[in-house]
Design brief:
Helix content is 52%, strand content 8%. By secondary structure, the chain is mainly alpha-helical. Helix 1 runs antiparallel to helix 5. This is HK97 gp10 family phage protein.
């Protein structure tokens, strides 16, 4: 004998809960994606101070990924003085590795970042 199931969903009482859970999942996914962008950016290396200064701040629904806001080189120079020139100039040579537009190149594909967020949301939706 076939079984039948009925699901009654009281949308008005469940909507705030579902919305909150999905937003929390999206925020976790956004944080993971931003952290990954920082760790995988092809930052020019001299002393490593610029790469170490990378940070990801998330205040849902916005993530800010930056390099150079904090940190000092081995000579005591603030990384904020050379972060933007290193990011923008194609004339600089980076013999120890790294490329110009190191952050733009990391964030540009977008699809992978969105998939990371979607994976977190799917986990919440699949669990119910």
């Amino acid at each position: 004998m076939p079984r039948s199931w009925r699901l009654d969903w009281d949308w008005n009482s469940r909507y705030p809960y579902a919305q909150r859970r999905i937003e929390q999942a999206a925020e976790r996914g956004l944080k993971e994606a931003a952290d990954k962008a920082v760790s995988e950016a092809d930052v020019p290396v001299r002393s490593g101070a610029l790469k170490r200064s990378g940070r990801a701040d998330v205040a849902f629904p916005v993530a800010v990924v930056s390099f150079g806001a904090t940190g000092h080189s081995e000579r005591g120079r603030d990384t904020r003085h050379y972060a933007i020139p290193n990011h923008e100039s194609f004339r600089y040579k980076h013999p120890r590795g790294g490329t110009p537009k190191f952050l733009t190149r990391q964030l540009h594909p977008g699809t992978e970042l969105l998939e990371t967020i979607a994976r977190h949301i799917r986990r919440v939706v699949d669990r119910g």
